[in-house]
Structures are given as C-alpha cells and as structure tokens.
Design a protein that fits this description.
Order of helices and strands: EEHEEEEEEEE
Shape: rod-shaped
Helix content: 10-25%
Number of helices: 1
CATH class of the largest domain: Mainly Beta
Number of domains: 2
Radius of gyration: 36 Å
Strand content: 35-45%
CATH architecture of the largest domain: Sandwich
Length: 149
C-alpha cells in the first residue's frame, strides 16, 4: 500500500484521490496545464532563436563584410605591375606616386621597378591605417603585398 502525501492515510496504488482527505494523487507526473504547455512552447522558441538564428546572423555578417582597400605606390622611378582582389586584377604602368582602390575581402598588388636605380614602395591601407607594406631599392626590384578584411 501507498500513503497519501497530505494526510499519510493508506491509499490503493492505482487510486486517483485519497479516500481519507480527498487530495488528488499524482503517482507519476502531474498532467500539464495549458499555462505550462504555453510556457514550454515559449522556451522552445527562444532556444530555437538562440541556437539557429543568432549564429546565422554572425555568419551572414562575416560573409558580407567588405572593405575598401587603398593601394599606394610611391617611387622616384618608373614601374609596372598589377593590383586587385577577388573580382580580378588590373595591370598598370606608372611613374612616381599613384593611388588605387579595391573593394572586397582581399586585396593584392605586385609591382616591379623598370629601372636599375631608385626606390619603390607599395602600401595597402584600410580606413587610413597601413595593413601591409613592402619596399625595395634593388635593381628592377619586385614587390608583392596582400591584405584581407
């Protein structure tokens, strides 16, 4: 025999109510109320948002994060080379200093002095800050620089 949790009276194992005090007996788990069911649904919805939606937002923002890179070429002689990003590259020839812009997640540049004398410097900037820099004074020196956002 089992005992009533309220009055400690003896009750049958399959009884729904205590015959002594009348209290409802829950030998297993009490039935869910409408309020408990609604609360469970709310908790499940919040967990779904935290598990699926929030990480997705971080992934989307990382996929679409593009930067504007400024590629600065400084030299006292003539040079040639190419610059670009994931969308492609552009070949250029120049003399002295020039600036180029690339939008994307990566930027790269390869330049070569066309003379045996002088210097060549190439810098990649993001938001005004240098993120990559190379320089050479070697005869017909070649530089390669790259950066990512």
């Amino acid at each position: 025999m089992q005992h009533c949790p309220k009055c400690a009276g003896e009750v049958a194992p399959d009884a729904d109510y205590c015959t002594r005090c009348g209290v409802r007996l829950y030998w297993k788990t009490p039935p869910r109320t409408a309020k408990q069911s609604e609360s469970s649904k709310t908790v499940a919805a919040v967990l779904l948002i935290l598990i699926i939606v929030v990480p997705s937002l971080f992934w989307i923002s990382s996929v679409t994060r593009l930067a504007t890179f400024t590629i600065q070429v400084n030299s006292d002689t003539s040079w040639s080379g190419s610059y670009g990003g994931e969308a492609g590259a552009t070949s250029v020839d120049g003399l002295g200093s020039q600036t180029f812009r690339v939008t994307g997640k990566i930027a790269s540049a390869v330049f070569q002095k066309r003379t045996a004398y002088g210097f060549l410097e190439v810098s990649i900037l993001v938001n005004g800050s240098v993120v990559a820099h190379q320089s050479t004074t070697a005869e017909y020196g070649v530089l390669s620089v790259s950066a990512h956002s």
